[in-house]
């Protein structure tokens, strides 16, 4: 086997929610570059179409299609599932990336933030996966399972964040939902894994790391000393979705430069 065969996605169909920007956009490009036909969707129709056109204009072996959706409501999930069914009879890869965040100080975090965050980040993710199971099962073979990749966060594993209480809790729920779904769906020929990114430059994180100064400041809290790059996301997706990742399910893959296991100081505070 050639090393490149481990990450070749030629002939695969993928759906990336929230794929017009940020981590979704990074993943979509990686999948297209590996030969997949990628359906890119988010609430911003124009942005999805623009990203698809941009990727199709590059020297990649795959292709992209962009269209609108909203997975924060039951009606939106139903509409997205109907649209995907119009476009394909099989779905080899589902990347549940659509999400939102909210930051407010303790004592000021609004009640509606919890409902709004959980409805999209958790409820929408579950119901979209559930409704797309027939397409995922159709794509699965004994040697090549269908893949679900959920986007969690390092904040779902460790209590760090910028007053993002509802966001952090929602990502912790995503991580456990990943394990629960893996337990139920692996016997059906569908792997379910999650990535847990640390700081990556995106519209969601622009308030903190949208500048070089902000990135340098954030990097001080990352053991590897930098914020994430597009190739970090693309590489993880190609591993989880290619032949090399066909035996992995129920994993929460940390993409945080070591933040998930960083414990400053010593247990007994001795000088080392």
Automatic annotation (TrEMBL):
Keyword Oxidoreductase: yes
Alphabetic keyword roster: NADP, Oxidoreductase
PROSITE patterns: ADH_SHORT
Superkingdom of origin: Bacteria
Chain coiled-coil ranges: none
Family: Belongs to the short-chain dehydrogenases/reductases (SDR) family.
The protein's name in its UniProt record: SDR family oxidoreductase
């Amino acid at each position: 086997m050639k090393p490149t065969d481990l990450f070749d996605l030629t002939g695969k169909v993928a759906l990336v929610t929230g794929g017009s920007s940020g981590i979704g956009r990074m993943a979509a490009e990686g999948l297209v570059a590996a030969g997949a036909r990628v359906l890119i969707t988010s609430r911003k129709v124009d942005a999805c179409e623009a990203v698809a056109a941009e990727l199709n204009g590059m020297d990649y072996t795959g292709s992209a299609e962009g269209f609108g959706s909203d997975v924060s409501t039951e009606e939106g999930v139903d509409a997205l599932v109907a649209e995907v069914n119009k476009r394909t009879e099989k779905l080899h890869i589902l990347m549940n990336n659509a999400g939102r965040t909210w930051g407010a100080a303790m004592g000021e975090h609004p009640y509606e933030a919890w409902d709004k965050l959980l409805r999209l980040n958790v409820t929408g993710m579950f119901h979209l996966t559930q409704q797309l199971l027939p397409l995922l099962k159709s794509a699965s073979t004994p040697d090549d399972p269908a893949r679900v990749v959920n986007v969690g966060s390092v904040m779902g594993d460790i209590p760090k964040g910028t007053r993002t209480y509802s966001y952090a809790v929602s990502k912790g729920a995503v991580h456990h939902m990943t394990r629960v779904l893996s337990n139920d769906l692996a016997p059906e020929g569908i792997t379910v894994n999650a990535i847990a990114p640390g700081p990556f430059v995106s519209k969601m994180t622009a308030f903190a790391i949208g500048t070089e100064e902000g990135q340098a400041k954030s990097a001080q809290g990352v053991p590897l000393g930098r914020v994430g790059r597009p190739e970090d996301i693309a590489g993880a997706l190609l591993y989880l979705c290619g032949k090399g990742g066909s035996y992995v399910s129920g994993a929460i893959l940390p993409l945080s430069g070591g933040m998930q296991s960083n414990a400053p100081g010593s247990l007994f505070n001795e000088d080392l």
